[in-house]
Amino acid sequence: MDSNVQTVFQRPSALKEVPTHYCAGCHHGTVHRLVAEAIDLLDVQQQTVGIGSVGCSVLLYDYFDIDVVEAPHGRAPAVATGVKRVHPDNVVFTYQGDGDLAAIGTAEIIHAANRGEPITVIFLNNTTYGMTGGQMAPTTLPGQVTTTSPYGRDVAKEGHPIRVAELLAMLDGTGFSARVAVDTPKRAIEAGRTILKAFEMQVKKQGFAFVEVLGACPTNWGMSPIDANARVGNEMMDFFPLGVYKDITTKG
Amino acid sequence: MKKRLFVKGNEAIAMGAIEAGCRYYFGYPITPQNDIPEYMSREMPLVGGTFVQAESEVAAINMVLGAGAAGGRVMTSSSGPGISLKAEGMSFMAGSEVPAVIVNIQRPGPGLGGIDVSQADYFQAVKGAGHGGYHLIVLAPHSVQELYDLTMLAFDLSDRYRIPAMILGDAMLGQMKEALVPNSYRAPEDLPAKDWAVTGKRGRIRSNAVKSLYLGDGELEAHNWHLHAKYERLKEREIRFEATGLEDAELILTAFGGAARIVKTAIAMARREGLKVGLIRPITLYPFPAEIYRKATAETPKVLCVELNNGQMVEDVRLSAHPGADIRFYGRPGGTGSLPNPEEIFEQICKHYKD
């Protein structure tokens, strides 16, 4: 190779070279890449264990070249607890969607955070159940039409969307809680930095770290990838403001 | 002479587990098994182990899934209603081939039921409490000594076959105290290495995935035949039972766990009266000792199955017995005052012996 040629962009080592099954415009691919980059940057691929969840991201082991355990729906934080207690020096992360984490797994995420379990949790919020075909999620916005809220989510009947990043920030055991988005290159770069920090905190044994990522589900939203991407910034962020809600490393 | 201790049944399980190298325990309190988490919370830190009181039985079994997948020797314990909640995790562990020991100190149900003696979780334990069709290894101790010894065995069988193993006890066994000789644990030499566990890739060419999802064409069927072959191997190699007095028996009694203790006393009473009564006591409920029933009932076709429920194991006895066998049942379904005493069983022996 010409010695003047430099590699400026390549597939992260933590990702396998395989085609994706995700729909066009879905943000799982982007978030997978950001997680893999964090693993590469911290040079922890050999000691990382990922915990898959039920939903579109269930095939984690098809994409990440790391050890993976597949957890039952919502239980990833409990499975991660088991793995981390056996291998405290491993980097253990869960990768969960909003149905998984904010509905069936509410108890597991709250108690893992409250125990200060030293794991990293990546939470992709796209306001719907993706894999099961676009049903209402705990994060579905007021008025949003889904297959199980065909008249639009009515908060009087169906309750309010849950702001998980804020909720977990209230717990004493949480070390870090933030919400990011990946709808623009700038925000994706920022999201990558936040995810890196959440992994770095685990390496430095600084406690439970949580990153909520706002993403799009064009297929189930019934939108083009471009319109769906725009919805993340236009509608979702009004209800789910971006920001860092807790960071114990910034305290004096 | 070996040291003899006076130990409560539940504590014997915890002691056996720690002696066998269990270093991870995740559980949630429920009567009548609370001595186990209490013992573990006290002793685990002293041996460098981990005790976590989970937020629910559901979380506890999934912590077990994680720790087992990571290669740890791990245990949880509960009682009927808690085991129901653990069913999801048990199905995932069976499907993902994760070893672990699960203890069920049975209480009567259904629903909240009561907190005393019952054996009504036989179906739940043996037929697969969770979804999808699977089996656990199920061991049924009937003494404090066996609670200790079979817990050790459960860890080894679980590791050897990559299958969760259940200790199926009951409130009587868990709460009683009797003599225990704490045998030292010796690991079998042929336990396979856990090269499938998630430990971080650490130089392996292939990353490990502990999973039960098989979407590819034919993959799931192949996996289920693989699991089936394992159950068949268990039937060939791991049957355990106690059989006494079959040589001259005219009536065979059969019972497992706590019920077998009462039955043994009643059989001794019957023998003193000159009645020729034998006993088959399954120790492995899965794999079920079908062959001994088939053989024994060819000679002695009359069997009385005694259980602390309305009739569960009796179905497996019927399936196992010689086609001409005459299988009868006596049970009490559980609840305070529902425990039969030996005289009551002796009366049943006399009745079934004659007609």
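The longest strand of chain B covers residues 101-106.
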